[in-house]
Amino acid sequence: MLTMYSTPWCGYCRRLAAQLDREGIGYTVVDIEQDPAAADYVMKVNGGNQTVPTVTFPDGTALTNPTITQVREQLAAAG
């Protein structure tokens, strides 16, 4: 299952969540404004920036503000 790091006000996050729902791809949302450890993680993988959506895959890789196509490709590559 994917983890999507997000904020409640992020339009890109809402769009990606809707696309994941439409594709039937399971995910968990973590609000980085409510979880300091999650905010730290997002900053770590994004060069110090709290850029969302940041998506973490089961294999430990992460993509920042990915398209649904990139998510599908990463899932396929991870097997």
Descriptive notes:
- Residues 3-57 form the Glutaredoxin domain.
- Pfam families: Glutaredoxin (PF00462).
- This protein has 79 residues and is α+β, with helices and mostly antiparallel strands.
- It has a single domain, classed as Glutaredoxin (3-Layer(aba) Sandwich).
- Helix content is 43%, strand content 20%.
- The chain is built from 3 helices and 4 strands, in the order E-H-E-H-E-E-H.
- It has helices at residues 11-23, 36-45, 68-78; strands spanning 2-6, 27-31, 54-56, 62-64.
- A 4-stranded mixed sheet has the order 2-1-3-4, sandwiched between helices.
- A hairpin with a 5-residue loop joins strand 3 and strand 4 (62-64).
- The radius of gyration is 12 Å and the shape is globular.
- The mean pLDDT is 96.
Number of DSSP helical runs: 3
> Main β-sheet, in a few words?
4 strands, mixed
**Terminal Cα span:** 12 Å
Secondary structure class reads alpha+beta
CATH topology: Glutaredoxin
The CATH architecture term is 3-Layer(aba) Sandwich
The outline comes out as: globular
Secondary structure tally: strands: 4
User: Which series of helices and strands comes N to C?
Assistant: EHEHEEH
Could you estimate the helical fraction of the residues in percent? 40-55%
Strand content: 15-25%
* Assembly of the depicted chains: single chain
Number of domains as seen in the coordinates: 1
Largest sheet, spatial ordering of strands: 2-1-3-4
- What's the Cα radius of gyration? 12 Å
Relevant CATH superfamily: Glutaredoxin
InterPro entries: GlrX_actino, Glutaredoxin, Grx-like_ET, Thioredoxin-like_sf, Thioredoxin_CS
Domain Glutaredoxin: 3-57
Protein name: Mycoredoxin
GO molecular function: electron transfer activity
